[in-house]
Fold this sequence. Notes:
Oligomer: single chain
Number of helices: 11
Amino acid sequence: xxxxxxxxxxxxxxxxxxxxxxxxxxxxxxxxxxxxxxxxxxxxxxxxxxxxxxxxxxxxxxxxxxxxxxxxxxxxxxxxxxxxxxxxxxxxxxxxxxxxxxxxxxxxxxxxxxxxxxxxxxxxxxxxxxxxxxxxxxxxxxxxxxxxxxxxxxxxxxxxxxxxxxxxxxxxxxxxxxxxxxxxxxxxxxxxxxxxxxxxxxxxxxxxxxxxxxxxxxxxxxxxxxxxxxxxxxxxxxxxxxxxxxxxxxxxxxxxxxxxxxxxxxxxxxxxxxxxxxxxxxxxxxxxxxxxxxxxxxxxxxxxxxxxxxxxxxxxxxxxxxx
Length: 323
């Protein structure tokens, strides 16, 4: 079923109205527009170099599967080679299905697929590591803990895969939500993470976000039209913390003022270019694991220590001064 009128590009049956640009697009032209948008973003920010070996972080969700498909198509032109990399956080009833989707699409595209688990790297699954949180009164979301471990896990599996850059499927919505959250927390020093070609915290491998100029709803539609598998369940931890409230607020603003998210994206890039590109933090080895850190103990080891106070697991550590 199409919308009223014809496609702005070919006159065909419309399936999507892009309110912020005034375009109406048929299925074919809409999908082509996302390939082109991604290509332009990669070129604009110099994200990928010809001949690079690129690790694509594939969680198994609609965004990452779409990124893998689009980068696979674009690799024919830019000469890159791809490796799909997945992290199994260990969330019962959720992650197994996603890993299966990631493996299936990678195999369909002929892309090598490598995985790593929290259990393997840290000695506990995310579910095991967060068992203590139900009785803890600190306002720290599960996503905050998971994010620290996930970044380390992606870096580890990327190093094993021998890639020089990791592409993640963070979309425009993710980007502006993170920008707003940092502003609301008064944490401008961490805005460097939003640099389009991020290298920080001692990471040797670049992080790029080819979907950073594409709306989440457009990626969801692309995934549907391209026949991507959709997960039947959502992560049980996804609605904790401030992000859900920021997401809902920005969606309301976009509905009332089409293009508002694009404006916020441009503002965030301007702020980053002015204030956040050079944080000036010295990088030193972590006193526990030896990985790069901006202080004596890296964030991964700090959080492992917090979890270790509540959960016994191999490799528990204690910070200096714990006795």
